[in-house]
Amino acid sequence: MKRRILLTGATAVAALALAACGANNNPTAPPAGGGGGSTGSAGGSGSITVGSADFSESQVLGEIYAGAIKAKGVSVTTKPNIGSRDVYIKALQDGSIDIVPEYTGSLLTFLKGTAPSQEPDAVYTALKSTLPAGLVVLDKSTAEDKNSMVVTKDTQTKYSLKSIADLAAHQADITVAAPPEFQTRQQGLVGLKSEYSFTPANFLPLKGAAIVNALKNGQAQAANIFSTDPSIPANGFVTLEDPKLLFGSDNVVPLVRKDKVNDTITAALNAVSAKIDTATLTDLVKQVDVDKKDASAVAKDFLSKNGLG
Amino acid sequence: MLINIGGWLTDPTHWTGPNGIPTRVLEHLLYAGISLLFSAVIAIPLGIVVGHSGRAKWTISIANSLRAVPSLGLLFAVALWLGPKIASSLAYVIPSVIVLVLLAVPPILSGTYAGIQGVDPAARDAAQGMGMRGGELLRKVELPCALPLLLSGIRGATLQVIATATIAASISLGGLGRYVIDGLSVSDYPEMASGAILVALLALAMDGILALVQRFAVSPGLSGKFRNTPGNRPVVSTTARGDAATEPASPTDRADDQREALV
């Protein structure tokens, strides 16, 4: 046991070292005009650098933030695909980037070490008071990327389902497909039973695309899929409401360096957050991951449709 | 770590219910048993025909080359293909059985083929001289003579199938692989290691049982147990090759043996 702790410690140290390396090696020095990424009009002192994490949803959001700010006449540079949270938070703190799209629940868990299972505003307030000095969050959007229970359109119509609570009445006919860990976690079968008195007739422990296929092909009637997964619009799946907030809250929110915040940027990003909900975000992710469009093109399209860019 | 595994294996809650060790062992044996049954039904008759006639030997080569197919990849491929066609858990059972059958057919087929092909021509001649024909010859002489190799083929197949049936858990089925996959998903290493140990123990136990079966099912004339009695040598050698023909004891050999035994 002791050895395991040591090993874990060593791994953590190694990970931190790597993360630090990543931050240092990243070409994320303050922009000096015509650096990497898509550049703005000029590289003046008022210039803003928008970063994003290493998955397409974050990159689309980053491009949207950048586009919305640019539309206000501020010069903007993007540094997409920086890495994981450890890396881009460091980049934010050392000033290599100024803005990054974040998630309220995940960021709070990262900073505090606990998984909050509360309603969106409570998580947002808790996050505000937990943020390290020098960093602020602007308005959160209603868009959430979190665990969710998803059913097919047919099942939804057949049982007229609206929320997860409606599953309990039909539990004898429902098989749930989810990752293996779903079976033992609070944000899983345990919580579904305690919060919604729902115990599925059968459980299929599967992974990734196999979960989507099981739902699509009828081996399962409900599945645990992330709320912005492109398979949801691609297959016409319906996400069930989670009134008891079993899966917590994880709203999209811009995380910004305090010294870069001004009225122009606040207004631009709050306008974006007001226009993004989970369905919109899911569709944006689908355009990038399924339709293989360029993240910046998808962002540009979204901004012009919503009169933001 | 070892203590953790011991603790996991001796925890009474892990011995009851649908996720208990007895249930998982039975599931595991069920998948393995069904697959071995199908494999035997396919491989033994085919092996007999090829061994007996000496024709279509390419089937053996093809079956052996199938051993190179990666089981896990094939499992996912078949599951992906069957998924849209069957809307029940059979969509996971059938791919698992197919993969395990493909794994078990080559050793059983090779064993049967080699066993039948290696039957001492002298024994066959003698049987024919006694008036045996076709089916009777096969049942009374060729199969018993081929039994040691046939059974070792089945033993090899069983060992491999029990070890590999673990992958059924990766497409949501039960069996002992559940502990490995579920343990991995929540970083419960004692659970993973216990699952692996149970698979190994089950495979060894089945191999031991089959070794006993082999010992009692094989004719004493072949197994060599006869040698304990001085003056008696097996009429047919256990070696599968054609060189068996040189070995059967001629009267002079026997006399030599007796002399040796006396000295």
Could you walk me through the main structural features you see in this protein, from its secondary elements to its overall organization?
The complex is a heterodimer of chains A (309) and B (263). Chain A has 309 residues and is an alpha/beta fold. Chain A is built from 12 helices and 10 strands. Chain A folds into 2 domains: 34-144 and 249-305, 3-Layer(aba) Sandwich (D-Maltodextrin-Binding Protein, domain 2); 147-239, 3-Layer(aba) Sandwich (D-Maltodextrin-Binding Protein, domain 2), CATH 3.40.190.120. Chain A has a 5-stranded mixed β-sheet. A 3-stranded antiparallel β-sheet of chain A has the order 3-10-4. Chain A has a two-stranded parallel ribbon with strand order 1-2. Chain A is globular. Chain B has 11 helices and no strands. In chain B, helix 2 crosses helix 5, helix 2 runs antiparallel to helix 7 (134-164) and helix 8 (177-185) packs antiparallel against helix 9. The radius of gyration of chain B is 23 Å and the shape is elongated. Chains A and B meet through strand 7 and helix 8 of A and helix 8 of B.
Brief write-up:
With 309 residues, chain A is α/β, with parallel strands linked by helices. In chain A, 44% of the residues lie in helices and 14% in strands.
